[in-house]
Predict the structure.
Amino acid sequence: MRQQRRVALEQEVAELKQQLCNEETVHHILERALQGGGGGQAVAMNIPAFIPGKAKELLAELVLVEQEIARLESQIHQMKGGLTTMQQQRPAANVTSTAAAAVPLPSSSSSNGSSPRTDIKSMFFINQAMDGEYLKRHLGHDKDKTKYSNNNNVLGLPPRHSHDSNNNNELPIIKTRPAGTTKVLQPNKLSERILKCLVCIFIRLLRSSRVAELDKEKSAGNSFSFRIDTGLNVATSNVAKDKDRGQQDHYAIFAIQDAIVRDIGPYKNLVRFTSSSFDLRGFSSSPLLTKLRGMLEALQQLDLRFLSHHQKLAFWLNIYNTCIMHGILQHGLPSNSEKLLALKNKATINVSGQMFNALVIENFILRQPSSVKEEVRGLYGLASSEPNILFALCCGIRSSPALRIYKADRVVADLEKAKLEYLQASLVVTSTRRLMIPGLIHSNMHDFAKDMESLVRWICEQLPTSWSLRKSMVECLRRGRHVKVDDVVDVIPLDYEFQYLLPMM
């Protein structure tokens, strides 16, 4: 009897501890959502599965509203600065009229809809997405689907202005032509072709930048031959060193002190695209952009209702990555967590006559909260959640996984492969018996585990027993079994430096 009582009490204590852990997690998310700096907003978007559906809506809404407030405050500051400058430069008699002409009102827009609106929508735009009213109209008027306006928005999200307005003049604006002139393809094939086209665009930019760099070095070779030769010798020695190790260490894991060098798998064969190659001058007339415009136009005419679960999964993974890459071409590079979140909000794409941004695709289609209405789930969402999508979502930062084009007939196997390859390339085991896990996995821990200990166990279970990485991890944990997991495990912080790891085309 006493033993049963003890077991019952221990079970109750365990449940209370779990409840406390959940409450601390919610508190942490709220704290990060409300603070203005660092990676708080990005962490806040990773909402754990145990939180009720309504609370998920409110948390997601809170993050987006905080971002909208920050954007509007920045816009007000810029307008005030412009008005002050104008008042100093113009005669006093013209100040009023010129200020009125230079500062557009939020409610104004051009008659043809070419300038984005800056009106603030209600805080209930998340709830509007859940009620499914727009889908009822969609399902009731299939025969009129070609008449949908390009301004329809699946969550009522307002267009966003870039904070880096000084960079926008150099970026080619990718506009779509009126619908109805492009043959409609099967959705999965079209999504694959669009993403492949974007990969080709980025690789073309990379090659152009390398040619320009070589020409620059060649022209400067005569005047600075001694210095250039020295630099080349150093570069050659570094390349030789990397070749000896057989690595292209894209996540810089071997730069960590005492890291055990090992094979990082297929990641060493990927093409690395960085900010130094992002130069769009003279690229706006490229035939690749013309091809991309035509395929984005065809995307508006798709019917997704009859796709299977695997077809939808592969389609939306490709469309998410398309949305981010297309957004980078239009709005520029994200350099920190705030600008990354702003990019995800501004990067929009028209699918089946509805506008989606990257945040909506990630959090309300791919992650599929339980609170989403059945109409939404049936038309756009997935039949079940897939935690491994974390290893397929590439948002252009160094901590992101490699880009991959997903096909419906092997999407589950490819997600499993993407997970293993990312773990192989990003985990660190040191000779001092410490384990380091990437921040991307840690910030999404609740997709796979309840705490750090179970997360480390989950990681070990994913790795094949024959891998040296798993053997090193097991040995590290075995030697530290008498101490807490937190004492032997560190987290590699998220790195927001721009980077894409692209497949060879």
Observations:
- Residues 300 and 350 are 6 Å apart (CA to CA).
- The two ends are 69 Å apart (CA to CA).
- Residues 153-215+254-505 form one domain.
